[in-house]
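Task: sequence design from structure.
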């Protein structure tokens, strides 16, 4: 299985971020995992020096839909406007919200490749990498 270079987790729940990091580390699918707590922090991360000077390209973003400060939909709307060199190769939403409205709204964002339900499992992570990065 191919190992991803860098993954960005965007979720306002620190416990969820910790658990997602553990799942990704256990699955051994990424060389580096970065974490931010909301969409605003994610945009700052993507347009900041740390991302621009990173030695590893950003392969994957996993973003929660329901967050405080800036939710996933607002993040995705602004993400669409970023130049390609600020973007990841793939974006997936990772959320406990699987409402019809949310799933329909995600169709407005062409950068979003898919939707994963929380909690993230090792099987989901490995399937995502095998399906979209092989």
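Answer:
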């Amino acid at each position: 299985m191919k190992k991803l270079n860098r993954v960005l987790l965007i979720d306002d729940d620190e416990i969820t971020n910790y658990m997602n990091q553990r799942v990704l580390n256990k699955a051994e699918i990424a060389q580096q995992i970065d974490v931010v707590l909301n969409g605003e922090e994610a945009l700052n991360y993507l347009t900041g020096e740390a991302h621009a000077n990173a030695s590893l390209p950003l392969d994957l973003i996993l973003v929660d839909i329901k967050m405080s400060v800036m939710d996933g939909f607002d993040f995705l709307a602004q993400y669409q406007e970023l130049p390609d060199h600020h973007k990841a190769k793939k974006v997936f939403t990772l959320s406990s919200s699987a409402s019809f409205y949310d799933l329909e709204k995600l169709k407005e964002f062409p950068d979003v490749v898919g939707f994963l339900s929380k909690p993230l499992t090792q099987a989901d992570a490995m399937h995502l990498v095998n399906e979209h990065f092989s």
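The two ends are 8 Å apart (CA to CA).
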